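Inverse folding, one chain.
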């Protein structure tokens, strides 16, 4: 009897839910933009209207056929543009005042999830409606859980594409290299793989737990100990095993790489993108252009480290590496731009997340083409992800990911740091 009552109760609840869904009619919103940036045509348009139907851009133009009762959002004093995209964010890395070796092993996955949520809110409020995590420092899969909770509509945040970990060789940039070798339990990075068999297994494990992307530490790094940014971390056969395994599973793969040998090996193996590529030689830049390898230069972080270094916030060893990197980085970026490589915005935040949006202006300082820079953080990023059909520009049929700022970033890229309207998938996140 008890059981039957329960079943009836459940059936009633389901009925109500279904009725509510049925009653949930299509919603329309009309956004009136004083200025609108068409990143595909590289055109600044005036007095444009966007009709949003549920989560999609239904119409766009000087006039749109809004049904009666459509809610109007007046942005006639603002510049509308597509939702911004940060293709190199980390949600769980905190190195303020400590090294990663010191902080990472003290943070549980639950702790990281909470920090990650806070960071995602900041990113969305800044205008980033889509982010890619190119490996993060969590021993479990917190990034995947956050991605899925956002996709289910349970949490607010940017849509996420996730490489859960940065797969690294023993002693590489994704390992922790300063612990005593005689500890009763070794303290290591979350995903260490050496040799082709272990590499294939590591890629499969990432995919088993939900990876969209695979991330590889192809050289040493700047903010770590004992690994060398100039040395290739894996052999050519190992790089090939990584790319083959990822692509066979229809996943994309990216490499952290500073020195040319590591960049070159990853590009030759068919990696989809390269992060940092600080010390790229001209021939490697040309090969990237030829093969369509995307370049995520992460420029603001270099400025930030050097700035912190002056105030003594960075260790002498890290600062020495950063200076080496900074000297050649600007050259590599120019080289890549001249060679026709497609660049993508990625902030690599080891700084407060509010500053991630400064990557746009950091890129604009090095590249004399603000349309190129805006595309790097919108349509070019969507192309890198293979999602250009659904996001990356204000186009009919695409997701209603729309942001607006008081002034035009094409005139001065720093204006993008003042975004004060954010809509993601038809939902207004903020409108100040
Ligand atoms: Zn990074």
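Residues assigned per position:
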């Amino acid at each position: 009897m008890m059981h039957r009552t329960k079943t009836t109760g459940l059936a009633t609840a389901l009925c109500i839910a279904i009725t509510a869904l049925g009653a949930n009619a299509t919603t329309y919103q009309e956004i009136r933009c004083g200025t609108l940036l068409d990143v595909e045509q590289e055109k600044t348009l005036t007095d444009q209207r966007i009709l949003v139907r549920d989560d999609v851009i239904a119409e766009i133009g000087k006039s749109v056929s809004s049904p009666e009762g459509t809610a109007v959002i007046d942005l006639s004093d603002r510049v509308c543009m597509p939702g911004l995209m940060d293709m190199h964010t980390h949600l769980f890395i905190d190195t303020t005042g400590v090294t990663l070796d010191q902080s990472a092993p003290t943070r549980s996955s639950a702790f990281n999830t909470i920090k990650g949520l806070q960071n995602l809110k900041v990113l969305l409020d800044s205008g980033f409606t889509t982010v890619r995590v190119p490996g993060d420092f969590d021993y479990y899969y917190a990034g995947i859980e956050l991605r899925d909770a956002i996709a289910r509509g349970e949490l607010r945040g940017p849509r996420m594409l996730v490489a859960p970990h940065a797969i690294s060789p023993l002693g590489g940039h994704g390992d922790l290299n300063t612990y005593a070798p005689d500890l009763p339990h070794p303290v290591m990075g979350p995903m260490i793989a050496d040799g082709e068999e272990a590499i294939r297994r590591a890629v499969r494990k990432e995919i088993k737990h939900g990876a969209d992307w695979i991330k590889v530490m192809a050289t040493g790094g700047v903010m770590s100990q004992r690994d060398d940014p100039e040395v290739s971390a894996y052999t050519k056969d190992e790089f090939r095993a990584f790319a083959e395994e990822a692509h066979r599973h229809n996943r994309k793969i990216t490499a952290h790489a500073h020195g040319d040998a590591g960049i070159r090996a990853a590009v030759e193996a068919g990696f989809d993108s390269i992060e940092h590529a600080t010390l790229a030689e001209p021939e490697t830049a040309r090969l990237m252009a030829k093969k369509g390898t995307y370049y995520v230069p992460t420029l603001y972080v270099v400025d930030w480290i050097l700035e912190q270094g002056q105030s003594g916030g960075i260790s002498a060893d890290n600062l020495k590496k950063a200076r080496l990197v900074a000297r050649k980085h600007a050259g590599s970026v120019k080289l890549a731009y001249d060679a026709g490589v497609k660049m993508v915005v990625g902030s690599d935040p080891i700084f407060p997340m509010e500053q991630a949006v400064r990557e746009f202006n950091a890129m604009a300082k090095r590249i004399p083409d603000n349309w190129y820079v805006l595309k790097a953080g919108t349509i070019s990023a969507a192309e890198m992800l293979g999602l250009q059909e659904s996001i990356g520009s204000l186009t009919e049929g695409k997701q209603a990911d729309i942001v607006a700022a008081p002034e035009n970033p094409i005139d001065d890229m720093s204006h993008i740091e003042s975004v004060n309207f954010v809509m993601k998938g038809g939902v207004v996140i903020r409108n100040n």
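The chain has two domains: 26-83+392-431, 84-351. The pocket of zinc ion is lined by residues 88, 90, 348 (CB under 6 Å).
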